[in-house]
Amino acid sequence: RDRLFGGLKRTSEKLGDNLTGLFGKAALDAQTLDEIEEALIVSDLGPAMAMRVRDRLAEGRFNKELTEEYLRGVIADEVEKVLTPVAKPLQFKAARPHVILVIGVNGSGKTTTIAKLAKRFQEQGRSVMLAAGDTFRAAAIGQLTIWAERLGVPIVAGKEGGDAAGLAFEAVKQATEKGIDILIVDTAGRLQNRTELMDELAKIRRVLGRLDPASPHDVVLVLDATTGQNALSQIEVFTQVAQVTGLVMTKLDGSARGGMLVAAAEKFGLPIHAIGVGEKIDDLRPFDPADMARAIAG
Ligand code: GDP
């Protein structure tokens, strides 16, 4: 929790900077409302949230004094309302293995997040297997293999340049034989070539679906929160190339752009399963909308 509040300090400070001078005036007027709306947009919270806060203030404080405390209270309140419906941990059904496809651009924190999820599931008493499906990057295969060894979980990995769908198929077969609860499949994150990426993800999906029509049971998109608006466009692209079922936001420690999470929730309504607050294996947190709202609003 401290990690979250510490991590989002820069986000709330940025919001505070953008709001400087907008409260404490004798009476809240239309121009100040415009400026507050603008400040919220500049703070990455998104136009819809900016409008909500504006409307609340116009209703409750117009022509009255607006204090910083009141303003931050309204922001926290509205943010929590938007975040609450999307806060959903991953849910497991009867399927064995439950297959989680993890997608996202290179550098977003995909590999690290897979390891963090694996650790969390292990702690819940579930058996986990990994599949190194990012066959385009030898480094990704290597990195995931190191995590698997550290965690003591089996991994199915092929050679660089190998067929990712074939690997995923093999992984499910092995996971089934071993009675594994959860199989986490890494994928390549090459957004540069959208058609190829789409084809590859579609092929993995087809192959998995042959073994179990409901598989993959989750398609989790990993997003780097420090990239702000860029992360929003990644959601747009990935929801077009894959049937994304939920999000994990990484690097919320020390990011000034944590507000994007609110804009993302409002614009796409996708479940947020967890957040990354550091590079270590235990730095994955469940997504708590009330804490998050307060950390952002400051
Ligand atoms: P991938 O290319 O998407 O697989 O990304 P990696 O998992 O290799 O992560 C890229 C970099 O981001 C690494 O240096 C990670 O340690 C770092 N990283 C991942 N998640 C987080 C996080 O939540 N917070 C911070 N500060 N760094 C992270």
UniProtKB/TrEMBL annotation:
SRP54-type proteins GTP-binding domain: residues covered: 97-298
Annotated GTP binding sites: 104-111, 186-190, 250-253
- All copies of domain AAA+ ATPase, residue ranges: 96-247
Give a GO molecular function annotation for the protein: GTP binding
Q: Which reaction does it catalyse?
A: GTP + H2O = GDP + phosphate + H(+)
User: What are the alphabetically sorted keywords of the record?
Assistant: Cell membrane, Cytoplasm, GTP-binding, Hydrolase, Membrane, Nucleotide-binding, Receptor
- What Enzyme Commission number(s) apply to this enzyme? 3.6.5.4
Q: Which GO terms describe its cellular component?
A: cytoplasm; plasma membrane
Q: Which domain of life is it from?
A: Bacteria
Q: Which InterPro entries does this entry report, sorted A to Z?
A: AAA+_ATPase, P-loop_NTPase, Signal_recog_particl_SRP54_hlx, SR_rcpt_FtsY, SRP/SRP_N, SRP54_GTPase_dom, SRP54_N_sf
- Check the record and name the Pfam families matching this protein: SRP54 (PF00448), SRP54_N (PF02881)
Bilayer topology annotation: Peripheral membrane protein
Q: Which GO terms are recorded in the biological process aspect for this UniProt protein? A: SRP-dependent cotranslational protein targeting to membrane
> Where does this polypeptide localize?
Cell inner membrane; Cell membrane; Cytoplasm
PANTHER family, per database record: SIGNAL RECOGNITION PARTICLE RECEPTOR SUBUNIT ALPHA (PTHR43134)
Per the similarity annotation, which family is this? Answer: Belongs to the GTP-binding SRP family. FtsY subfamily.
Q: How does it assemble?
A: Part of the signal recognition particle protein translocation system, which is composed of SRP and FtsY. SRP is a ribonucleoprotein composed of Ffh and a 4.5S RNA molecule.
- Describe the task this protein carries out: Involved in targeting and insertion of nascent membrane proteins into the cytoplasmic membrane. Acts as a receptor for the complex formed by the signal recognition particle (SRP) and the ribosome-nascent chain (RNC). Interaction with SRP-RNC leads to the transfer of the RNC complex to the Sec translocase for insertion into the membrane, the hydrolysis of GTP by both Ffh and FtsY, and the dissociation of the SRP-FtsY complex into the individual components.
Its protein name is Signal recognition particle receptor FtsY
The organism that produces this protein has a lineage beginning with: Bacteria, Pseudomonadati, Pseudomonadota, Alphaproteobacteria, Sphingomonadales
